Amino acid sequence: MSLDHLSAEVRAEVERTRAVVAALHAELPRWGLVVWTAGNVSQRVRVPSGDDLLVIKPSGVTYDELTPEAMVVCDLEGNLLEGTRAPSSDTAAHAYVYAHMPEVGGVVHTHSTYATAWAARAEPVPCVLTMMADEFGGDIPIGPFALIGDDSIGRGIVETLRESRSPAVLMRNHGPFTIGTDAKAAVKAAVMVEEVARTVHISRQLGEPLPIEAHHVDSLYDRYQNVYGQGSAPTSGITPAPTTTSATDKEQQR
Ligand SMILES: O=C(CO)[C@@H](O)[C@H](O)COP(=O)(O)O
Predict the structure, then answer these.
(1) Could you tell me the pTM of the whole model?
(2) Where is the composition biased (Polar residues) (predicted)?
(3) What's the CATH code of the domain at 111?
(4) Domain membership of residue 39 as a residue range
(5) Is residue 48 part of a domain?
(6) SS3 category, 115
(7) Complex confidence, ipTM
(8) Is the beta carbon of 59 within 6 A of some atom in ligand 1?
(9) Cβ of 18 below 6 Å from ligand 1
(10) Mean pLDDT of 173-188
């Protein structure tokens, strides 16, 4: 397969995305989110026909080798379209997310230590920090156990995140998957999920962390997502689905 049938504009966008995704892979070891080759970043390439593509790293290649040319290009069924090496083993999961969440433009997976420790216990990280309310809009949820290789992980991610404002899900016994409007936003969510998982873990060593009232969670989330920064901060930017139950709604239902 090749991308020859695509327009020059789309092929140029693929080249630009290769550079973005390669550079963002270097952020994973820089922020201490991965060991060896254990994590991956992808970004969607929108194609006018609707047959979008994704750019992701090849499987099992060390981070210092991940140049733009080393990236591979797949369709949203996970088929390799361009590249000489096997795509990341999590490609099917990334592809499923793009296929079922059109608003998502970037996906990241790591096995970062503290977030994965919560995933191993299948315990959501409770929203006890303003930083969590800002970025995640509530607890960081747990997704189901799923084996690698087919779309089970992708289904678990989508089912879990559709019920939440969080751009991060901790897949049970596995680790965090994060989403964003682009790969940079998803990398930011991966950095934040590890940070808050670590802080809440440490806090629990000291005693029981105090929850934040639901209306304060809503207020913090709204400010951070819509007002914070210079207007282009890489918040997740994902608009929650209408079915999402806000923290205030949940509080009122009690
Ligand atoms: O969980 C797994 C494999 O068990 C993966 O997340 C790897 O840790 C990274 O795989 P590649 O992206 O290098 O295929």
Answers:
(1) 0.93
(2) 231-247
(3) 3.40.225.10
(4) 8-249
(5) yes
(6) helix
(7) 0.97
(8) yes
(9) no
(10) 98
